[in-house]
Amino acid sequence: MAVRLGMVLEQVYLGGEAEVRIYEDIVEKIRKPKRYRIPQLDEILRRRRTKMEAKIISMARQNGVATPIILDVEGDKIVMERVKGEPVKKIMSPDISKMIGKAVAKLHKAGIVHGDITPMNMIYSNGKIYFIDFGLAFIEDRIEPKGVDVHVYFESLKASFDNWRELKQAFIEGYVEYAKAKDVLKRAEEIAKRGRYVERITGPA
Predict the structure, then answer these.
(1) Same-domain pairing of 64 and 96
(2) What is the reported pTM?
C-alpha cells in the first residue's frame, strides 16, 4: 500500500530501531539499516524482523489486546492504521495501570513477550489501551523473559510517577488473570534484586 498522493506527513519519530512517519490516518514504521552489518544480510534481517513484528501485532489483536490494524507490509516497512487518543503517560492512573495488567496477561498467555512495556508505547483511545510498538517483541513461553517484561514496566513506573507503588499494585491486580502470574511476578522481583545487587557491587556509572 503506497501512501496516497496528497497525504500530509504530520510527524516523524526517529528511534533506535525505526523511523515512524505519522500521517492523518495511517502510520508507516520503517526499520532502520544497521551499518555494522553486511548490507545484503542487513536487508534480509530487517525484512524478516518487520514481517515478524507485523505477525505479532496481528497475533496480539487476535488474543484480545488492542493494537493498530496492519494495512500492509512492504519489505522493511509496516503500514498500519493511526490510533488517535491520549498517550498513556499523560493520563496514567491506577485504573489505567490495571487495564495494562489485564492486557499484558493476555499477551503472556498467548506466548508474546513485548520487550518494552512502558507508558510511552501505549495510547488510550475509546476506553481501550492500545499497544502501538512491538519492535522488540518475540514469541516465548518461558517465565524469565516474561519476568523481564513485567520488571521493565515496574521500572518505568518508578522512573515516571510519584505514586508508582499504587500503580504497580493496580497492574498486579489486572495481571493476576494470567494463570502463571504468581511465577512471573516472583521472577520480576528476583530480577529487580539482581539489579540492586549489581548496583551495590559496582556503584553508580
Answers:
(1) no
(2) 0.88
Spatial distance between the Cα atoms of 165 and 144, rounded to a whole number of angstroms: 22
Q: How far apart are CA 25 and CA 37, in angstroms?
A: 34
Active-site residue list: 116
Same domain, 103 and 75: no
Query: Looking at the 3D structure of the chain, how many domains does it have?
Result: 2
Is there a single domain that holds both residue 98 and residue 69? no
Q: What is the tens place of the pLDDT at every residue in 78-111?
A: 999 999 999 999 999 999 999 999 999 999 999 9
Assess contact for 95 and 102: CB atoms under 8 A: no
**Domain of residue 68, CATH code:** 3.30.200.20
User: Is residue 6 pLDDT above 80, yes or no?
Assistant: no
- Beta bridge pairs of residue 66: 130
Calculate the alpha carbon distances from 144 to 70, 174, 197 in Å. Answer: 29, 20, 18
As a whole number of angstroms, the distance between CA 65 and CA 47 comes to 25
Rounded CA-CA distance 151/142 in Å is 15
Closest by Cα among 140, 74, 82, 131 to 109: 140
In a domain, 5, yes or no: no
Range of the domain at 147: 86-202
Question: Does residue 132 belong to any structural domain of this protein?
Answer: yes
